[in-house]
Amino acid sequence: MTLSERYHRNILMFGAEGQKKLRNTSVLVAGAGGLGSAIIQPLALLGVKSIASVDDEGLDETNRNRLIGARATDPIGMSKVLIADRNIKEINPDVDSIPLPYSIISEAAFEAVKAVDWVFGCFDGDGPRAILNELCAAYKKPYIDLASDVPEQTGYGGRVCVSLGNDGCLDCLGELDHDAVRRYFETADNLAQQNAIYGIDKMALEEKGPSVAPLNGVIASLAAMEFMVAVTGLRAPASLLRYRGHMSMVTVGRDLPRPDCHRCKGIWGKGSAAGIERYLEIPHLRRVKAS
Ligand SMILES: [Zn+2]
Description:
Blueprint: H1 8-23, E1 26-30, H2 34-46, E2 50-54, H3 80-91, E3 96-100, H4 107-115, E4 118-122, H5 126-138, E5 143-149, E6 157-163, H6 178-185, H7 188-198, H8 213-232, E7 240-244, E8 249-252, H9 262-266
Parallel strand pairs: 1-2, 1-4, 2-3, 4-5
Antiparallel strand pairs: 5-6, 6-7, 7-8
């Protein structure tokens, strides 16, 4: 493989071998919203082999404060993955772009996950995170999950979780809200009943919280860094990085993963025998929001 001058400054950082590894690496980005569009940009600039972007949503007016690559002239309703596709091609025509205008909980997206080398999750909710975490485990795909988080009163920030093998993931590092995952699996009718009994909190209503470009950019850049060092061999990636924006601080998680993790120890490498495809049979799971 001959490398163009475009990658000269990359090669000074991690060598021609590192660049070749990136050029041979296919990735999938699930969720092409604020976080997804922000991670697609450095991935295209790094010069990966291909980027599959997965999102079934269209642009709305409130996305314009943070969607990287969206233009003021883009019409409301324009597919977010077509915006991603245009952005990838305009940044780096070396990179194959595969826009997939589907929910991550779809046959097309599941097949795409199985076909790539690395997977990025850029969701608003923990339900699709939990499913993608399991899918990546069953098919041994390195999975980087991005989250920006703006809880009321407790500050603002986010985190990046890198699951490279079968020793630490979103679940066993304590990064999944199991109540939120449980609610995701409920039908709309059951949720309405529970809300009537137990009351409704803001998260349950799926109200849109704050989301700003600089915060998404920090989280996406942290994720792109861990991906870059892992693929090129500069160093081992951190499994958990937490950004506390209100304190101007990034910390590295030191907690050990739970030893009995269903994902890491139960279904790892089992492929179709892990049964993750059963989620495709549950139609109401296809409601997914990108961050
Ligand atoms: Zn785990």
